[in-house]
Design brief:
It is a single chain. This protein is mainly alpha-helical. Strands 1-2 form a two-stranded antiparallel sheet. A hairpin with a 6-residue loop joins β1 and β2. The radius of gyration is 43 Å and the shape is elongated. The chain starts with a helix and ends in a 30-residue tail after the last helix.
Length: 117
């Protein structure tokens, strides 16, 4: 049973003199494995806390932007409704209209009035 839990690392290197590959087997002791676990557990906890911190900061920033956007849309909608209410006064339909042509004014402020003679 202990054979299945054993960690074996094989390192293959080339011999500098012959250029042929050489295989070296490195055995990892149980004490080394436990030391690795004891090192990785605090690292994992620290990384999880940092991840939660950044996720919370991102979520708060997203909430602020969403609230700001919702407020802006509410403000524009309110403004539009006020404008529509102001323009919704009484009106009448003009069926027949006459176009009146105006003559341009002179620099002295007097217009070219044909009937003024």
């Amino acid at each position: 049973m202990d054979e299945n839990r054993k960690i074996t690392i094989r390192r293959i290197t080339r011999n500098k003199k012959t250029g042929l590959p050489e295989e070296e087997i490195v055995q990892v002791s149980p004490a080394g494995r436990w030391a690795t676990y004891l090192f990785l557990i605090p690292v994992f906890i620290i990384m999880a806390v940092i991840g939660i911190f950044f996720f919370t900061a991102f979520l708060a920033l997203f909430a602020v932007v969403a609230i700001g956007l919702a407020f802006r849309l509410w403000w524009l909608r309110r403004k539009l409704h006020k404008t529509m209410e102001a323009e919704a006064g009484e009106y009448s339909v003009i069926e027949d209209a006459e176009i009146v042509e105006e003559s341009p004014r002179k620099p002295d402020g007097k217009g070219d009035d044909i009937n003024a003679k």
